[in-house]
């Protein structure tokens, strides 16, 4: 097989980026081709397309093949060598940034777990190839494209790593589902969404979600969503005096201003108009 090596660097560099792809490349390595032992000052993600080889960290040694990914962490002493009979071909991308460490931990990577088995149908090689092709084009907008492709890569790896870690306990699964519900309502409260829509988006039936949500929070999903909307409306009434009560109601996802006023008084003890007047007087003191 013919040896090859190609790399492309990001045409722009930002000093204080939360996440920044530095370069990407590909190589068909020769037999027993070795890198290291050495350390890097950035994250370096490899995905193997064909062939096999060995990846060594400070903790252990991994024999890897097609579809496997390994992530080198900054400051970790590592080495990797291709098989003498079936040398590997791989793609890679290097990245850094203030949020890089948190991002890879969210994906499930760590110095103790640097490998993800993504399989032969993985989309990661294509994403890494896309980063390299984008950098070869030399456009400054390639920075954003490379971030999108990097997130796709880490997202797929995260799914594999979580599957490899085994099934979660019942309690942790319930807590994770309730957090998803809270996040959904917090991001969608301004729209006329329903609890049925939320349940459908999360893939559970309403009775189950309502039960576990109330067990964890003490409130039903309907009450939690309504309370969230009223809390947001109180902020708007205080901070946006130019908005009418109808406009405030619509801004928190309640299109019926009369219903909004009734529910506001139920939670706050005052009508929206009186609440606004009272808080305005307090602020003027």
Automatic annotation (TrEMBL):
Keywords, sorted A to Z: Activator, DNA-binding, Transcription, Transcription regulation
Protein name, as recorded: AraC family transcriptional regulator
Organism, as annotated: Paenibacillus sabinae T27
Coiled coil spans: none
Domain HTH araC/xylS-type span(s) in chain numbering: 179-278
Database matches in Pfam families: AraC_binding, HTH_18
PROSITE patterns membership: HTH_ARAC_FAMILY_1, HTH_ARAC_FAMILY_2
Keyword Transcription regulation attributed: yes
């Amino acid at each position: 097989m013919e040896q090859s090596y190609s790399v492309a660097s990001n045409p722009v560099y930002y000093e204080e980026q939360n996440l920044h792809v530095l370069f990407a490349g590909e190589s068909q390595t020769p037999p027993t081709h070795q890198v290291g032992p050495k350390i890097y000052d950035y994250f370096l993600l490899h995905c193997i397309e064909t062939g096999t080889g060995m990846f060594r960290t400070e903790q252990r040694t991994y024999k890897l093949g097609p579809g496997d990914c390994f992530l080198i962490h900054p400051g970790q002493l590592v080495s990797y060598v291709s098989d003498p009979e079936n040398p590997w071909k791989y793609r890679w991308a290097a990245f850094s940034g203030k949020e890089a460490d948190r991002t890879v931990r969210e994906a499930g990577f760590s110095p103790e777990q640097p490998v993800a088995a993504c399989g032969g149908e993985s989309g990661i090689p294509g994403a890494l190839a896309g980063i390299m092709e984008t950098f070869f084009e030399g456009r400054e907008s390639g920075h954003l494209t490379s971030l999108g492709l990097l997130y796709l890569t880490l997202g797929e790896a995260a799914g594999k790593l979580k599957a490899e870690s085994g099934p979660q306990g019942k309690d942790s699964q319930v807590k994770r589902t309730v957090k998803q519900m809270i996040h959904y309502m917090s991001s969608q409260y301004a729209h006329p969404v329903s609890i049925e829509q939320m349940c459908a988006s999360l893939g559970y039936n309403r009775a189950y979600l309502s039960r576990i949500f109330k067990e964890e929070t003490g409130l039903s999903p309907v009450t939690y969503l309504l309370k969230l909307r009223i809390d947001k409306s109180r902020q708007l009434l205080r901070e946006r005096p130019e908005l009418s009560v109808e406009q405030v109601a619509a801004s928190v996802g309640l299109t019926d201003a009369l219903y909004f006023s009734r529910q506001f008084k139920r939670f706050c003890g005052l009508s929206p108009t009186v609440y606004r007047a009272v808080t305005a007087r307090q602020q003027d003191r």
